[in-house]
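Researcher: Structure prediction, please.
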Amino acid sequence: MKGFIKILEVVLSLLLIFGILPFFTSFSKSNDEWNNALLSLSLRDILISLDKSGILKSYIVSGNLEGLKNYISSLLPGNVMIEIYVNGIPKNVIKIGCNCTLEEKIRLERSLGIYFPEDYTFSLRGKIVRFEFLNTNEIEKMGDADVIIFFGCRDLSKYLNYLNEGKAFIMIGNDICEEKIFNITLKDGLVSSYSQINSNSLEPFRIGEYFIDVPIRIYNNSNFWVKEMSHSLYVCIDNNSLPCIRIDNLPEEYHIGDTITIDETRIKIKDIDADESDGRVFSDISIIDRNYNFYLPNPYPGIEENEKTILKTLNGFSFAQCNYFITQHGNGRAVWIKDFGEERKDFGQLLKSIILWASEERFETQKQKINKNFIEIYYIVSGVFESEPYLIRLIAFYIY
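Model: Predicted structure follows.
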């Protein structure tokens, strides 16, 4: 009898222990979640404070991420480790490989507003950016390229090393291929001819940030498109000898810095060159509406919208897709975009924005072993200063 009682006591003790253990496990888990939530708030407050003081910008622009890491670490408890990643700083020189015929290369340049050697350079947020095309159309020889562009399908299976190296592929066309690389899926149904930049996902939103800032060059007495309408631009000199432009030969004159509305779309005049001595008379303009409606008369085939859609219709289709973190090491970017045609300067402005995004500088601190129970903070710095906006990704974790 005594033996039975002993066994019963042991059983009851075990039941009590196993009954209490989940409580402590749950308490421990809740405690970790609470600590991570507090740490997340602290880190966000630190980033906001450093941003407002200008300290954040000074570290980022100089590329001193280790210094920024040490600065932030000094404001945190000693048992917290962090890693910092920065995207969004455009390169001063972007090397473009065009895997295309001579006619396609000329068409690409015209889409980007390039007609003369001087047009490869443009101003973006106070800094000078230059597109530099490689002197080869062979994809095998494009190891120096930041971005490789082509029209229509290519078999990229032999060139995946380029993605591992951090390069980007941009495919222009209505063909469907390399679905995994370009993140595209066919979808049946009636496709709308209008699409807008997707502001609900981070990377498409950042492409939209470039779009409203990047200029597109329109030469004198030539046309540009707004939605489904074509308009003519004329460069003039006003009565005060200042350069100006007129639209559709109407009498109103507009000057550098003016914002005009055409077809319910705001357009900013960024520069005007009325000097005829070098044979180059033009205006640099930008569509500055985030909700601009891109018009495509033939929107087929239908591509399904997802979180990486750049241009989306109201009924769930995509006109442009991006992809990133493609390789097992998290490198490489890719963009598929429907062919809007050479004369569509709104398409050219978007394509410029995509090239800037695809070729961005990417900085990171020296990697260390990361605790699996880490938190991740994203912080977008958006403004009017040089090298903005850029994206900061911060990973933090407790080491004990």
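Model: The radius of gyration is 27 Å.
Researcher: Thanks, that helps.
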